[in-house]
Design goal:
alpha/beta, Rossmann fold, 6-stranded parallel beta sheet, 6 strands, binds flavin mononucleotide, NAD(P)H-dep_reductase
Length: 189
């Protein structure tokens, strides 16, 4: 069972890097886990035919590398900031280049910002439905006080009040990942 932790932001000085380390340390105690850093997958703005209609027909090597990476996961934890009350464009752009790689897998979110990234997370849940994913109820929301404190120390313990939420998310994600992994070979389309 492989869980991928996807960094949804790529800008200089990004907070997602701190979150990725914490989430990876937690999840990797329970399952195989890897960080998929979108900085390692620079892509042009999406400009191809719909990937849903041409599964795994990759337009170029960069898309192929992203697609084959996502393909091997059984579930995803997307780490997302909120940019102008929406999800980061770099994250949506990466998603738009792919499709079936995500299908019938569970997805959950760790968000941050003034309202813990809640608006971006809610929007991403809607996007996930279109990808025929199972977006989960449990998410982790990091509020500004924790963000400010986390910027002042490299100690992961700064996130410890959020550990129970992350554990709930992990527990739920692993349940869905196992269930859907067993069911995926029998999918109807
Ligand atoms: C372009 C931009 C727009 C932002 N808009 C919001 C917003 O709508 N809501 C919010 O809570 N924070 C917003 N912020 C602040 C982010 O929460 C904060 O910069 C956070 O660190 C972004 O994550 P990142 O560092 O991983 O990019 C915005 C930041 C940027 C750069």
């Amino acid at each position: 069972m492989l869980i991928q932790i996807i960094t949804g932001t790529t800008r200089e000085g990004r907070f997602s890097e701190r979150v990725a380390g914490w989430v990876f340390d937690h999840v990797s105690k329970r399952a195989d886990a890897e960080i998929v850093d979108l900085r390692d997958h620079p892509l042009p703005f999406f400009d191809a035919p719909p990937p849903a209609k041409a599964p795994r027909e990759y337009a170029n090597d960069a898309v192929a590398r992203l697609g084959t990476t996502l393909d091997r996961a059984d579930g995803y934890i997307v780490l997302t900031a909120e940019y102008n009350h929406g999800y980061p464009a770099v994250l949506k752009n990466a998603m738009d280049w792919t499709f079936v790689e995500w299908t019938r897998k569970p997805i959950s979110f760790v968000g941050w910002g003034n309202v813990g990234g809640a608006r971006a997370v809610e929007q991403l849940r809607q996007v996930a439905v279109e990808f025929e994913m199972a977006p989960l109820r449990h998410a982790v929301h990091i509020l500004p006080d924790t963000m400010i404190a986390a910027r002042q120390t490299a100690d992961q313990a700064i996130f410890s009040p959020l550990e129970p939420r992350l554990e709930l998310l992990t527990e739920d994600l692993l349940w869905w990942a196992a269930a859907l992994r067993a069911a995926r070979p029998h999918q109807v389309s």
